[in-house]
Amino acid sequence: MKITDAAGKIETLVDSLRDMSPTRLRSSSSDEHVSENDDERSSWIALHPSALDMFDKIMSDAEGKQIIMFLDYDGTLSLITEDHDKAYITDEMREVVKEVATYFKTAIISGRSTDKVQSFVKLTGIHYAGSHGMDIKGPTNPDQSNQEEVMFQPASDYLPMIDEVVNVLKEKTKSIPGATVEHNKFCLTVHFRRVDETGWAALAEQVRLVLIDYPKLRLTHGKKVLELRPSIKWDKGKALEFLLNSLGIAESKDVLPVYIGDDRTDEDAFKVLCERGQGFGIVVSKTLKETYASYSLQDPSQVKEFLERLVKWKKQTLGEEEEVIHKID
After folding, report:
1. Lowest mean pLDDT among 7-16, 176-185, 273-282
2. Contacts of 149 (CB under 8 A, 6+ apart)
3. Which residues does 26 contact at the CB level (< 8 Å), separation at least 6?
4. DSSP 168-224
5. Is 90 strand, coil or helix?
6. Phi, psi of 246, deg, nearest 5
7. Quick count: other Cβ atoms within 10 Å of Cβ 95?
8. What is the per-residue DSSP string for 123-177?
9. CA-CA distances (angstroms) from residue 142 to 98, 102, 120, 149, 324?
10. Taking the alpha carbons of 217, 219, 223, 225 in that order, is the dihedral positive or negative?
11. Residue 99 pLDDT > 80, yes or no?
12. Helices 3-19 & 200-213, crossing angle to 10 degrees?
């Protein structure tokens, strides 16, 4: 590879990292500039209205259908943190998710390893799909000794390579202050949230060199992370389809899948729902961005509020049904 080609790829990658970083505050020295920003936001909200504002419409569309909940973890159920090992879910959010899972089939699909997500969430009775859906486990049952049922691991042949590359990456990035490498079983995550922007190019170069030595891996990126994954056609969208099929409801017209996520990798799931013409995505974002999601929420606190309202709606629906039964009797 020519030096100029390599430099061009690094520059392109750094630009991508910059684009996915929190939007810098822009000057608002003129009323025209502020008006333009307001117009942009209004146009975006018109395309992706708040799921809270549109809650009644969403529930109207869900009438007579079985809602299936798919949830991302980081940035959706928990806040994004400087230390990725401390992205804890709050007790209040955990309780809400527990209630959601009581009334609706529920799955958490995350880029983290399944074991890590389970250790954070600490809930049984739901599906966990870690490593962007490459490690899917069925609902745990506290009444059984075997609490984890491995349902699907499409990249199991890659495990030895992933174990090897994590050590290579740690060695290559240890000289870059703030960079950390997270082993997520079927994928590797390089965090650069605490890396000064002046060090992004050096970090991207080290990751590129690793990819040259391991061509069976591919590079993806999300919020302040670079990820190395097996080069297989599998993502969160594929995981969503697998779970619908495994539940035996993929072809049902009476099912309404709802996926809530905040990152670029969640777009694969949003896109699948759009293509199926079934269900919808809710993007969690305070900034304007292209998305396949139908609705939006700003942060995990709004996700919590949406889930609380969903549970309340379901309880009211069941209460009405019970009242009808009593009247018939």
Report:
1. 7-16
2. 137, 138, 139
3. 33, 37
4. HHHHHHTTSTT-EEEE-SSSEEEE-TTS-GGGHHHHHHHHHHHHHH-TTEEEEEETT
5. coil
6. -65, -25
7. 14
8. -SSSEEEEGGGTEEE----TTSS----EEE-TTGGGHHHHHHHHHHHHHHHTTST
9. 14, 15, 17, 12, 34
10. positive
11. yes
12. 120
Q: Residue 241 phi/psi, 5° resolution? A: -65, -40
118-137 pLDDT, tens digit each:
999 999 999 999 999 999 99
CA distance 284 to 295: 9
* Catalytic entry in 72, 135, 263, 266: 72
329 part of the active site: no
CA distance 195 to 192: 5
In single-letter form, the type of residue at position 73 comes to Y
Residue 60's contacts (CB-CB under 8 Å, 6 or more residues apart) are none
User: What residues pair up with 198 in beta bridges, in sequence order?
Assistant: none
Among 60-64, 143-147, 317-321, the least confident range: 143-147
Task: Tell me how far CA of residue 121 lies from CA of 2, 43, 112, 185, 299, in angstroms.
Answer: 47, 36, 12, 18, 18
Q: What is the pTM of this model?
A: 0.88
